[in-house]
Design brief:
single chain, about 375 residues
């Protein structure tokens, strides 16, 4: 799930014009405009201990890094400080990359969004024959979460290919595909399998060749244990009876499509630039990704392709949270205001989405914004 610092990371840092020091924080950079850095530091005081797992945060405004900060430790055992170059497991922030991989196949003419998954993916359970690719992207498929079939005693890690067998243990969907919304990690594991099937290469390799390299995300990867190495890896932790304890992997940590990417806030600056410049996906397809469907009952969903989408005080707001064993993350993006805030942490728990929103509000000059839409979607936690 991730890697290290290269020329693009230095380029991102070059955007920032002022170095600022602060106790408990490392490798800080800030643009000349925007809120004072101490205001942001105050929001992250719970992550700033020199003895606890940390956080990295970046603010991108008008195409430039307005602020980049890191707090706490990326590795408690080695006492390695977190930096903007630290690579965290993205958890569900991975889904926007999986959705992009699907859109690239659409642009290649190898796939249509209304294709039935059973027609393009061998082994997809027959009872799911009415599920379309678009249903998976928008969480309107109604398929079960594969985690429901993984026992608490499981020791061998589940991989994307195992998800089909787990889904075969069910015989129905929660609802008719396309009629309602229910968040499902299974959907994005299946989408990764579709990418593998139609591209003829592993999902990790496809992301590397078609997404990470073209965008300059040189330290980013869909991590496969024993195959790839994360050189600036932040390790995950949870709160134990007498302090933080290692909690870096779970039985589902090896599933890539729904959460297996490792990256840094520095590389995510390059990703944000690619989104805004349509460097990978056409403007038309990006609009599709950022437009939730209207359901048959006339209500509008709050999920596009790998992004939650809602209206925040008259502004389009794109967002996602990510929660997995030892990591909790968030991204919020206001495309029309050209503002993106990303918070990555290597600890279970906390509410980085609240921190990301507070930081965004500092730049927007607002307060009292609506809760993020994931907090209102079934099964989204």
């Amino acid at each position: 799930m991730t890697p290290g610092a290269k020329p693009v990371r230095l380029l991102a840092i070059a955007f920032c014009s002022l170095m600022v020091g602060c106790a408990g924080a490392t490798t800080s950079t800030r643009a000349l405009s925007g809120p004072d850095v101490s205001t942001v530091d105050a929001l992250f005081r719970d992550y700033a201990s020199a003895d606890s797992p940390g956080a990295s945060v970046v603010v991108i405004h008008d195409g430039q890094v307005a602020l980049s900060r890191a707090y706490g430790l990326a590795n408690l055992e080695q006492r390695a400080p977190a930096t903007p170059d630290s690579d965290y497991r993205l958890a569900s922030l991975t889904k926007q990359f999986t959705a992009t991989a699907i859109l690239l196949l659409v642009q290649d003419g190898k796939l249509r969004l209304d294709d039935r998954v059973v027609d393009v993916l061998p082994g997809f359970p027959p009872y799911l024959r009415e599920v379309r690719v678009q249903h998976l992207l928008q969480h309107t498929s109604g398929i079960w979460d594969y985690e429901d079939f993984v026992p608490s005693t499981q020791t061998v890690q589940v991989k994307d290919r195992d998800v089909l067998e787990l889904l075969a243990r069910a015989d129905r969907t929660y609802f008719a595909p396309g009629t309602a919304v229910r968040y499902s990690n299974s959907a994005y594991a299946v989408l990764a399998l579709v990418v593998q099937q139609l591209s003829g290469m592993s999902f990790a390799r496809f992301l590397h060749e078609r997404v990470f390299v073209p965008t300059g995300m040189q330290g980013t990867m869909a991590h496969e244990e024993g195959i790839s190495t994360v050189p600036r890896r932040a390790y995950g932790y949870a709160v134990g009876p007498s302090g933080f304890i290692p909690r870096d992997q779970s039985p589902t940590s090896a599933v890539l499509g729904d959460g297996g990417i490792y990256t840094s806030v520095v590389d995510l600056v390059a990703w944000d630039k690619a989104l805004d410049s349509h460097g990978l996906v056409s403007a038309e397809n990006q609009r599709l990704a950022w437009t939730p469907p209207v359901l048959p009952d006339g209500t509008r969903s709050t999920y596009g392709f790998g992004w939650f989408v809602d209206d925040d005080g008259g502004r389009k707001r794109l967002s996602h949270h990510g929660e997995t064993c030892g990591f909790t993350n968030a991204i919020v993006k206001y495309p029309e205001q050209r503002l993106t805030v990303i918070v990555l942490t290597n600890r279970a728990g906390g509410a980085p989405w609240t921190l990301a929103q507070h930081v965004a509000d500092l730049w927007l000059g607002t307060s009292g914004t609506l809760p993020w839409p994931f907090e209102r979607m079934p099964n989204a936690h």
